[in-house]
Specification:
By secondary structure, the chain is an alpha/beta fold. Helix content is 29%, strand content 18%. The chain has one domain: Zn-dependent exopeptidases (Aminopeptidase, 3-Layer(aba) Sandwich), CATH 3.40.630.40.
Length: 244
């Protein structure tokens, strides 16, 4: 595994290839750069409010395969959520799953976006133009139960997201179900609502994609990440071939 580029806002792992697979992981890190105290308990930074648990390990392992690269956000979603539009309040959240984020209150939001959000998206835009992939694989993970919604269970193993273009979602769902997994259709989030990435990079540009959320307890360990990296590499290659 080779990290080609690392900046404050993003990491590029592996070598992007024309016609290959690019894994995009917006919530891959819980890093808070020096000078940006968020004012929350350290243990919260290991939880789902700070990052998508397990995603970085899967993306990095997938990028070890020939023809696959991974583009990962390099700061916590609490510092800057690159999977939001710049104008959304949640792009720099003041509350997450019921927990206040004092360090995000009363700040210069434009300066925060200039430091992290805009460089991340400028590089991803350039990367997609320079080496157009055959498939963009957008990878997230979700917690089985939100602290702010204790009665809401999320029992499915993973969920697919899409808006108008459901080709990758349908193929991915079939392939995952053939391996015995329960797949939520647009769960736990809807790609018709939670769709900043879909609008900006995927359907607006007619790029083939597969957008998946995996339940965090399945990928919290190195073993789980290795198993899912192997599985998702196979599935993404199948999708890339079938929707070419």
């Amino acid at each position: 595994m080779q990290t080609l580029i690392e900046t404050e806002s993003y990491r590029l792992v592996g070598t992007p290839r024309f016609g290959g697979i690019l894994v995009v992981a917006d919530h891959a890190s819980n890093r808070v750069p020096d000078g940006l105290g968020l004012g929350i308990a350290p243990e919260r930074m290991e939880e789902h409010i700070a990052l998508d648990i397990g995603v970085a390990g899967i993306a990095e392992r997938m990028a070890e395969r020939e023809g696959t690269a991974a583009f990962l956000c390099n700061v916590s979603r609490l510092v800057c959520d690159t999977n939001r539009t710049a104008g959304e309040p949640a792009v720099i959240p003041e509350v997450s799953d019921g927990y206040p984020i004092p360090g995000n209150q009363g700040i210069d939001r434009a300066a925060r976006l200039d430091r992290f959000y805009h460089p991340y998206h400028a590089r991803l835009t350039a990367l997609l133009d320079e080496a157009p992939p055959q498939l963009i694989f957008v990878l997230h993970s979700f917690t089985p139960q939100m602290a702010s919604k204790p009665d809401e269970q999320r029992p499915w193993h993973c969920g697919v997201l899409y808006d108008a273009d459901d080709r990758g979602a349908r193929l991915g769902t079939r392939l995952l179900e053939e391996e015995g997994f329960v797949v939520g259709d647009q769960e736990p989030y809807s790609g018709k609502i939670y769709k900043a990435t879909i609008e900006r990079y995927l359907e607006s540009e007619a790029r083939p994609y597969f957008y998946l959320e995996v339940r965090q307890d399945l990928i919290a360990t190195a073993q789980g990440q290795e198993e899912w990296a192997e599985r998702l590499t196979r599935i993404c290659n199948r999708i890339a071939l079938e929707i070419a």
